[in-house]
Specification:
Shape: globular
Strand order of the largest sheet: 3-2-1-4-5-7-6
Distance between the termini: 40 Å
Number of strands: 7
Largest sheet: 7 strands, mixed
Helix content: 40-55%
CATH topology of one domain: Rossmann fold
CATH superfamily of one domain: Vaccinia Virus protein VP39
Structural class: alpha/beta
CATH class of one domain: Alpha Beta
Number of helices: 11
């Protein structure tokens, strides 16, 4: 798991770039879909695990109503700071906790639902994390966790990797692959089954990645990922090569100039068995 640690949002500039450029085009549409497909939320006590900048937590707060509650957990203080600002006016208020996925600083058998959008693949001990999810859920409680499928299927980010390889920067390309290729989706169900979850199901979902700003926005997005600092360290000539090569690949990928291919995600759902009295 050392390679996952290299893909870090801890740098303040990366966290802000992620929040301003990646979140609106990528994580908001997927958050809305996740929430729509797992209704109803009213009155539920929900944890957004690996909350990042709080996109899912904010939307959950809008859906749980006055009788519900939302918690957001993340180990990254920079991201949580942005999440707190995003959710400052949420009702009910989101309670943010800075802690790891294991152990979770939450009471056992206290939650109805746990959501983890694109964070599970970064956990250093996934089995322990699932065990903690099981512990904090009530009997009958549910979990949904999503992870990206391989970068070859997530075409925009695959184009970033190909452009970097073409200009002979394979190390940066490998760093870009981490969120997509660090964990096969086939590993997801066994973690939840081993922890005692039932009705474990793995699905594949797709969505278009739409950038209304076209190529210019696409280049800014590439610099807003955690490889951004590495790109900026390259000599100007090498950066120009990257932008030119990336632009050529995107022109091939996007016939309309704004739809930058497909994003594809694994989605695992599971339920904690109802406890016998």
């Amino acid at each position: 798991m050392n390679e996952a640690k290299e893909f870090s949002f801890g740098d303040s500039s990366v966290a802000h770039g992620y929040d301003s450029r990646l979140v609106p085009i990528l994580f908001v549409p997927w958050a809305d879909r996740l929430i729509e497909e797992n209704q109803p939320w009213a009155g539920r006590s929900v944890l957004d695990l690996a909350t990042g900048t709080g996109v899912v937590a904010q939307r959950l707060s809008e859906h749980v109503g006055p009788d519900g509650e939302v918690f957001g957990v993340d180990i990254n203080g920079e991201m949580l700071s942005l999440a707190q600002k995003r959710c400052a006016g949420s009702t009910p208020a989101v309670e943010f906790i800075e802690c790891s996925a294991h152990p979770l600083e939450l009471t056992s058998d206290s939650l109805d639902f746990v959501v983890c959008q694109q964070g599970f693949q970064f956990f250093p001990d996934r089995g322990a994390a699932v065990g903690e999810i099981y512990r904090v859920l009530r009997g009958g409680g549910e979990v949904v966790a999503t992870t990206w499928r391989p970068v070859a299927e997530c075409q925009f980010f695959g184009a970033i990797c190909r452009a970097l390889e073409d200009i002979r920067e394979p190390a940066i390309a490998d760093m870009m692959r981490i969120p997509f290729d660090v964990m096969p989706g086939s590993e997801l169900p066994p973690h939840f089954e081993s922890a005692g979850f039932v009705n474990v199901q793995l699905d594949r979902q797709e969505m278009d990645l739409v950038l209304d700003g076209g190529i210019a926005q696409a280049i800014k997005v590439s610099y807003s990922t955690p490889i951004g600092p590495k790109l900026k360290e390259l000599p100007d000539e090498r950066q120009n090569q990257f932008r030119e090569t990336f632009t050529g690949l995107l022109n091939e990928l996007s016939p309309d100039g704004i739809t930058m291919g497909r994003m594809v995600s694994n989605v695992v759902t599971a339920e904690k068995p109802t406890q016998r009295s």
